Amino acid sequence: xxxxxxxxxxxxxxxxxxxxxxxxxxxxxxxxxxxxxxxxxxxxxxxxxxxxxxxxxxxxxxxxxxxxxxxxxxxxxxxxxxxxxxxxxxxxxxxxxxxxxxxxxxxxxxxxxxxxxxxxxxxxxxxxxxxxxxxxxxxxxxxxxxxxxxxxxxxxxxxxxxxxxxxxxxxxxxxxxxxxxxxxxxxxxxxxxxxxxxxxxxxxxxxxxxxxxxxxxxxxxxxxxxxxxxxxxxxxxxxxxxxxxxxxxxxxxxxxxxxxxxxxxxxxxxxxxxxxxxxxxxxxxxxxxxxxxxxxxxxxxxxxxxxxxxxxxxxxxxxxxxxxxxxxxxxxxxxxxxxxxxxxxxxxxxxxxxxxxxxxxxxxxxxxxxxxxxxxxxxxxxxxxxxxxxxxxxxxxxxxxxxxxxxxxxxxxxxxxxxxxxxxxxxxxxxxxxxxxxxxxxxxxxxxxxxxxxxxxxxxxxxxxxxxxxxxxxxxxxxxxxxxxxxxxxxxxxxxxxxxxxxxxxxxxxxxxxxxxxxxxxxxxxxxxxxxxxxxxxxxxxxxxxxxxxxxxxxxxxxxxxxxxxxxxxxxxxxx
Length: 576
What we know:
It contains 29 helices and four strands. By secondary structure, it is mostly helical. α24 runs antiparallel to α25. Mean pLDDT is about 80; it is low at about 1-120.
């Protein structure tokens, strides 16, 4: 029985204070004279301190003198020293402030009776500083294929704390850290834990941005994860995905994401975010949307700032409709993306005729102060509505802006006026211009030009001239486009004299005629009135002003002139 107690004392010493030597791994040396352990009492939550003493079997006195200390158990004693021990060993306890005596038989000592055995072992372990320095000195230098053999020569007793200390040391090449870890994995005295893997991944990702080491780290993590499900943490995968994303390796990131399920990891919001970021950086928007759909269906959403970035990435990839789905789910989860992301989403939706209505619905989410300053998204929606010819919807939105905000400016009014003019509804266009003036705004040159062009296209030259006269009153300098619209309208009606008057009038209002005005007028004179003489005068005027007339129009003048001369020659010959 006492041999059993002696054997169990060795187990206690091994678990807490034993030091293994390379030459004799089975021999145990206690590190202190008393072999002390903490156990949990079955009847109380209080912790008790137990000490094994070598006592006289005939004495039951619980007080111990200095002579007792000299006979304490030593690692050099053999089992014969325990033959004199009594069948039961008295142990002093202090429970609830009273000195009590309890007896621990050989059957009371078991592995389950120890509290925090693993933690105590970690606390009792002391790193051999000399060996640690040797390892770090080796890893911090550039080594060749002899690294593993050099490590073997150190006769290291690997412990989790020792390995973590090495991995956390700065100024160590990432390649050497990976090689050291692979070497350590092959040793039986090291148990690879999640903590060690996390430290390795964190060390590599924070100090090394080389593609070679990133792929080597991923190969190592994949090997561990495939053999030990649940050992690789999602935090390590997130750091690895972020590293590969910085290196622009979108396909590798997708591989890491797909493997997370095989590792027993449940992707979190950071996993989805970094994967989508990496794929969008490489313009793999279709793959990114597949990952995003999984996030929307299964995973938690990231914070509002990151949701805004995801929305912007999909908008840049011409997936505004998909980005709108992300926005809707974020709104359901009370996560509102930043304003710039919302503005960008609305603008992107307005570029596609099929999604303008979605952008219009989003405007209802702006309230209070946010609505008063949201002129950019409101203007984008009005442009989209006018492009799809929903002018009544654009007008209703304009009236809402006037009533609730944001206050519309000239650009918003001009967009709607231009839409009505292109549709030939000049009455509505003029009403919108009057509404603009009632708001205290002044119609600009563009406003007048658009209305003049609308009237000219419809052959309503009197109304166009009236708008021109109003423009002259309010603006000292007009646009060439304003006169060009009128000249084009008069040429259609073959009123060339009026067109020439407008051409001469342009310079009085600070507008220099350009090649378009001359070219349009010369062609109309030659083709419709066969007036090559006036056309030649305009051509000479162009030369004086340094303007160039294209060869086709010059040839047209020559052809009309020759045709007329041939006609006159025939008439003369007939009369003769």
